[in-house]
Amino acid sequence: MGALCVALGLGVPLGSLAAQCPDGSAPPCRSRAPSGGATTVAILYFDNLSPDTADAYLADGVTEELIVRIGAVPRLSVKSRYAVRRFRGQPARDPAELGRELGVTFLVTGGVRRAGDHVRVTVELMRAGTGARVWGDVYDRSEGDLLSLQTDLARDLAGGIIGRLAPADQARLATLPTRNAAAYEHYLRGNFALAQRSPAATSRALGEFQAALALDPDFAAARARAAFAYGLFFAWGWRHPDLPVDSILARGVAAAGRALQRDSSSSEAWMAYGMLLWLQQPATYTGMLDAMRRSVVLDPGNAEAENLLGVILFNLGQDSAAAESFHRALAIEPGRPISLMRLAEIAWTAGRDAEALRLLDSTVGVAPTFYFAYVDRAWVLLHAHDTAAARTNAETALRLAPEEFETGRGVLAAVQASAGDTLPARLALDSLVGALDRTGKVDQIQVFNVAMPLVLLGDTARALDLIERARPRRARLWASLRWPEFDPLRASPRFRRVVAEASPTRAGP
Predict the structure, then answer these.
(1) Which of 187, 205, 219, 484 has the CB geometry, 3.0–4.6 Å to 194, for a possible disulfide?
(2) Ramachandran class of 197: left when φ > 0, alpha when ψ lies in -120 to 50, beta otherwise
(3) How far apart are CA 14 and CA 18, in angstroms?
(4) Is residue 450 within 8 Å of 436, Cβ to Cβ?
(5) How many Cβ atoms are within 10 Å of 416's Cβ, its own excluded?
(6) 417 Cβ partners below 8 Å, 6+ apart?
(7) How many angstroms separate the CA atoms of 453 and 466, rounded?
(8) How far apart are CA 153 and CA 60, in angstroms?
């Protein structure tokens, strides 16, 4: 573990980072799940009432900050942003119906309008069962007063729900992520871009977080989100317009370490830290699991952390525990596409193709532009010998994906090989292998992108060559080699040697 601390520039053991939990107690931190008597609230995403649609980030940011602040009051149980996100932009619904669906007593709605250098926020609190208005107000402030507006709004809303606030509650609601209004606005813009989950948008998000940190170097939340954004580039194999892959990971690791040094009670920082440890592929997996589990305990409503915990557990071969994490993520955010897709991958690995297809159908049903789900669906359909449907899904993935999406090219080559179109399949795979030869690097992503299609083409020699070149030989590679498409290679001593060297059982718990 000491080597990992040095790599992160922390200089202290993992356990000592969380010297204090959010409630002031010593670790291990208690779950912030509310007691049975807590009042339940759902804060729906505020409408963007500005003439400029580019101001949508502001409405989302005001909502998400309000969710965080109100959720810090122990007597209130507030639905996470993940739970209410699916209702964003939808036509007005019957409050009683919404209340039943979300399981809450109160609903909060509102709108944000920017006019010149002023921001106007309207908010309304109602009883879900009847739709009766309980409280509401209008806040009109200058842009520079956005932080104080958020504090006043959170305090007034919490008071409208539970009445008189204790001094400790008022202190929690007054906690600011930064005191620099301009840095805060960059942070909101960055969060909005990061939620779009594309290479271009994530690159914009990094720029916004860096701008925020230039104005306030102590802005721990912005640093944690920057670390997570770096991790997304590495995890998804995206190309950054300016930074090489190794630099992306190094910057992410450094950002995660500094964020934790600044705020060791941040669920977002622990999540980024655990994700980056996983991507860094250390010799032991204890640290990444501890970090991700701490993130979940610090914020039981963090669906992203639950999902990433599930991914790590799946990479370690703990499929049942991984499925439990994905189901918890879905309980927080029903219909969460990435968690549905991950459950499908567990079923696919276990040979339950029909179950995998049902889950992938649900994934693209709720997220019709989620290109990676079409890749997985193409592979499962190939395994089920439905080549025509697999081709449709592979082509859809390529149409929706970023231009450099090599995974889409690989699965389309696999479809072509399965259909007997060997010439275009070979040409596409020759191009992909040539690119790997030029860079000299083969990792888990390329094994999935290129080696799997080569197996389907019958070119097992080149597939084995690529698998043997893959580095690092850690759990991510081992997990990829579990896919049923590699079954023709399982008797090969070369294949078995790589599997054994990459096995997570070699790395401890």
Answers:
(1) 205
(2) left
(3) 8
(4) yes
(5) 24
(6) 425, 453, 456, 457, 458
(7) 12
(8) 15
Alpha-carbon distances, residue 406 vs 233, 236, 253, 375, 478 (angstroms): 14, 11, 26, 11, 20
pLDDT tens for 219-274 read 999 999 999 999 888 877 777 888 887 788 889 989 999 999 989 999 999 999 99
- Backbone region of residue 141 per phi and psi (left: phi > 0; alpha: psi in -120 to 50; beta: other values): beta
Which tokens in the block code for residue 158? Answer: 């919490």
CA distance 31 to 172: 17
Q: Residue 183 is encoded by which pair of tokens?
A: 């840095």
Contact at 8 Å (CB) between 459 and 451? Answer: no
Query: CB–CB of 34/285 below 8 Å?
Result: no
Q: Strand pairing partners for 111?
A: 47, 122
Nearest to 309 by CA among 280, 270, 347, 281: 270
Q: Is the peptide bond before 199 cis (omega within 30 degrees of 0)?
A: no
Q: Copy the structure tokens of residue 367.
A: 């997220």
Extended strands (E) in 364-406: none
| Three-state DSSP state, 179 | coil
Alpha carbons 124 and 111: distance in angstroms, whole number: 9
Residue type, 458: G
Where do the H-state alpha helices sit in 103-217? 146-162, 167-173, 181-194, 199-215
**Residue 465 pLDDT > 90, yes or no?**
yes
H or E segment to which residue 77 belongs: strand 76-78
| 336, 329 Cβ separation under 8 angstroms | yes
For residue 78, list its beta bridge partners.
Answer: 41
Contact, 312 vs 288, CB < 8 A? yes
The string of DSSP letters for 246-300 reads: HHHHHHHHHHHHHHHHH-TT-HHHHHHHHHHHHHH--S-SHHHHHHHHHHHHH-T
What pLDDT, in 10s, does the model give residues 299-344? 888 889 999 999 989 988 999 999 999 999 998 888 889 999 999 9
For tokens 């399949």, what's the residue?
A: 425
Residue 367 has pLDDT above 50, yes or no: yes
Q: Are 319 and 345 spatial neighbours (Cβ–Cβ below 8 Å)?
A: no
Rounded Cα distance, 8 and 272, in Å:
12
pLDDT over threshold 90, residue 295: yes
Tokens of 389: 């449907």
Is the previous residue joined to 337 through a cis bond, with omega within 30 degrees of 0?
no
Residues 32 and 208: their CA atoms lie apart, in Å, by: 30
Q: How far apart are CA 172 and CA 159, in angstroms?
A: 13
Name the 3-class secondary structure at 446: helix
Distance between CA atoms of residues 143 and 53, nearest Å: 17
